[in-house]
Structure formats: C-alpha cells, structure tokens
Write a structure and sequence with these properties.
This protein is 28% helix and 31% strand. It is built from four helices and seven strands, in the order βααβββαβαββ. It has a seven-stranded mixed β-sheet, with helices on both faces. It holds the Pfam family Acetyltransf_1.
C-alpha cells in the first residue's frame, strides 16, 4: 500500500468510487475531480499496486497567520474499508494542513458514525450543523473544526 498524489489518470476511478459511496448525494464527476486537481488543491490516493483504493482532497487558503484548510472529500472503496486506509488519507491531509499551520474544517453527514469517530480521533470537534446540506437526499451535516497544529504534534490516538 502506498500514498501518492492523484493524477488525471486516476480521475475515472475516483468517479467510479463516488458513485458507489455517495449515490444519493450528487456524487462528484470526472469534471469536478479534474477541476480540483487543475486548481492545485491537494489530492492524494491510496494505492495497492496500480489500483486506487481510496482518495482524499484538501484546499488550503489564506495567508499567514490566517491560513485555513478544508477537507473536500475522503472516500475508500467499501471492499477495503476497515483496513486503516481512511485514517492514512486523513493523516496525509492533516500533515499538509499542518505545513501551513492551518485551522482545518470539514462537513460530514450526521449519520456517518465511522467518519465522525475518525475525525474526532484526529482532533476535530463539532462546531455546528448544516441542515439539508447534502443534496438531493437532504441529509444534515456536522461542521467540524480542528485547531491549528504544528507538524510535530501528535494526533492523540497513540498510533504515532
């Protein structure tokens, strides 16, 4: 297993996984992924050989000392969930945010307990609820925030 930056050749697989993972909530298309990568946002994938098993994306905006990061997406092939791939992807995103000492935000479905637990284990806290955030399902989302952290600090799960 290896982590690597996503490339244009990975976009079709990202779209495929989106359709499996988020069928009721406007899954991202190849064009959305292409735009995100072309814009220079940080997108990373977890690969086994040449197979893309999961992906994650982060934007970093602002200038010091007011840098913010936003997790745009995290997705792992359901056949490979429970293997720590989501954790590895989140850690990669947070390491990037930490390079800029960025406060980091994200939205997560209020019924996605596995993701919420993962984010809480990495220092995120609930700061609000966005009603009917996900469309067309109308599912609510929690907004979560992780304070600025320098690159050398631990994430608190003892997994080092």
């Amino acid at each position: 297993m290896r982590l690597d930056r996503l490339r244009r050749r990975d976009i079709a697989r990202c779209e495929e996984l989106e359709n499996v993972l988020f069928p009721g909530d406007s899954p991202w298309t190849k064009d959305v992924f292409a735009s995100e990568i072309a814009t220079g946002h940080y997108y990373v994938g977890v690969f086994e050989g040449e197979s893309l098993l999961g992906y994650a994306g982060l934007s970093v905006v602002g200038r010091e000392p007011n840098v913010e990061a936003e997790v745009h997406t995290v997705g792992v092939d359901p056949r490979h969930q429970g293997r720590g791939l989501g954790r590895a992807l989140v850690r990669a995103l947070l390491a990037r945010a930490d390079r800029f000492a960025a406060e980091t935000f994200l939205e997560v479905r209020t019924d996605n307990e596995a993701a919420i637990t993962l984010y809480e284990a990495h220092g995120f806290e609930h700061v609000g609820v966005r009603k009917r955030y996900y469309q067309p399902s109308g599912a609510d989302a929690y907004t979560m925030r992780r304070p600025r952290t320098s690159a050398g600090e631990e994430d608190g799960d003892g997994d080092g």
